[in-house]
Amino acid sequence: MRPEPVPTLDPQGAYLRRVWQNVVYPMAERMRIAVRLPPVQPRSRLAHEATYFAAGHNKREAFQDSVFRSFFQKGEDIGQEELLVRLAEENGLYGVAMRQALQLKEFATDVQADAELAERLGVQAVPAYVVERKRMITGVRTVDELLNFVVEKNREVSFTSS
């Protein structure tokens, strides 16, 4: 989420270009997903709040998919209220209600709680899969790897990545 005052990453910088070239593009190709390095690195807290709104209206998955496509395929700034309201409306949500929820920060405490939990768990990479708020695995995983991780018992928090 890169909250203030943490600086956002430079989309033209060597770090992002290297990660996308060496990790993201090959992974996306294996998964047959079209993505491109977005020209902006927005603050995503508002998008997380908007996702809570969508979830409350049984549209979380569809809304989240729209947000990902907007950012990773179209290069749009998902930190902008106008864009999030448009995506909400495209997914059958009432845009005025979404805008009001965002402006009143109705879900800010939920998103903050998620961020604090991630920090306590030591999340430093995405995706991160957490079970019972105790165990974690990071990196893109196969279905079998995820199933094995979920059913494991009595395991300490792990910090593994692919």
Describe the SSE topology.
Layout: H1 14-30, H2 45-55, H3 60-72, H4 81-90, H5 95-103, H6 108-121, E1 128-131, E2 135-138, H7 143-151
Antiparallel strand pairs: 1-2
Helix pairs in contact: 2-3, 2-4, 4-5
Radius of gyration: 17 Å
The helix-and-strand class reads mainly alpha
Query: What is the H-and-E element order?
Result: HHHHHHEEH
The overall average pLDDT, rounded, is 89
Q: Got a strand count?
A: 2
Quote the beta fraction: under 5%
The neighbouring-strand order within the major sheet is 1-2
Percent helix range = 40-55%
Largest sheet: 2 strands, antiparallel
- What is the CA–CA distance across the termini? 21 Å
Q: Work out the helix count.
A: 7
Shape summary: globular
As residue ranges, the low-confidence spans are none
Describe the structure in your own words.
- By secondary structure, the chain is mainly alpha-helical.
- Helix content is 51%, strand content 5%.
- The protein has seven helices and two strands; from the N terminus they run ααααααββα.
- It has helices at 14-30, 45-55, 60-72, 81-90, 95-103, 108-121, 143-151, and strands at residues 128-131, 135-138.
- Strands 1-2 form a two-stranded antiparallel ribbon.
- Helix 2 (45-55) runs parallel beside helix 4 (81-90) and helix 4 runs antiparallel to helix 5 (95-103).
- The longest helix is centred in the N-terminal third of the chain and has 17 residues, at 14-30.
- The protein is globular, with a radius of gyration of 17 Å.
- 17% of the residues are buried.
- The mean pLDDT is 89.
